[in-house]
Amino acid sequence: MNISTIIGLVFGLVSLVLGMFLKGAPLINLVNNPAAYVIIFVGTAGTIFIAFPMSEVKKIPKLFGIIFKNQVLIDRVSLIGTFMDWASTTRREGLLALESKVEEIDDQFLRGGMRMIIDGNDQEFVSDVLMEDIHATEERHRGGALIFAQAGMYAPTLGVLGAVVGLIAALADLSDMEKLSHAIAAAFIATLLGIFSGYVLWHPMSNKLKRMSKQEMEIKLMMVEGLLSIQSGVSTIAINQKLSVFLTPSERKQLEEKEGSSGEKG
């Protein structure tokens, strides 16, 4: 479970409920107003169905799963160590010596790239194929994030629509001013839900998908550089220096400590 998503949802809901309570707004209006929920959430769903083909809409449950689950990525420090080991083996025994290691690779992208360099494809071909794979994956991820971004754009506007509908109903009967005041207050619940869902739910979820995609693509680019370096026959030190640019300062420190402990054992 992605703890930051859960914390964000809790903070968002608490801020809404506590804010209304502190302002003296009747909390019952949040519950006792099904029309507002229909207009905002069903209306937002309708805009998504209109804006996107069914093939993309079907992916929404999977996208929610991605948002609420921890992203599992290869550790970048360990990945550099693996490439250094492969580079050392290649310089001693040649590329074909890595053939026995291919099936041990869990990552499909890395396994496919390794097979291409072992099969003797030239660097330009390997680079083109892997980069096209990355671009295609980025486009798929961008499409998923766009669904939530569009929902975040439509929901606040639907909130205004809901308020207008509520005001029409409220102003239909002006005989009871007390009842009218409650009806007007309830009418703006739709606006509240539209803004809340748009800027506390949908836009942040879109941003999270973009960030997760960016982190995945950085590792894939790291893999491309590592594979091409091995194919070129560069030294383990050169691979270390080349791939270290993808690390954060804390990860670089971790790599240095790992190399230091390996040196001491040796």
SSE ordering: HHHHHHHHHHHH
Are there runs of 5+ residues with pLDDT below 50, and where? none
Total number of helical segments?
A: 12
Q: What can be said about the biggest beta sheet?
A: none
The oligomeric state is single chain
What structural category do the secondary elements indicate? Answer: mainly alpha
* Overall geometric form: elongated
Strand content: under 5%
Rg of Cα set: 27 Å
Overall pLDDT score = 89
SSE order and pairing:
Elements: H1 3-23, H2 28-31, H3 34-51, H4 54-57, H5 60-68, H6 76-93, H7 108-118, H8 123-170, H9 177-187, H10 189-232, H11 236-243, H12 249-265
Architecture overview:
With 266 residues, this protein is mainly alpha-helical. The chain has one domain (1-10, 36-259). Helix content is 80%, strand content 0%. It has 12 helices and no strands. The longest helix has 48 residues, at 123-170.
List keywords for this structure.
266 residues, mainly alpha, 12 helices, 80% helix
Summarize the structure.
With 266 residues, this protein is mainly alpha-helical. The protein has helices at 3-23, 28-31, 34-51, 54-57, 60-68, 76-93, 108-118, 123-170, 177-187, 189-232, 236-243, 249-265.
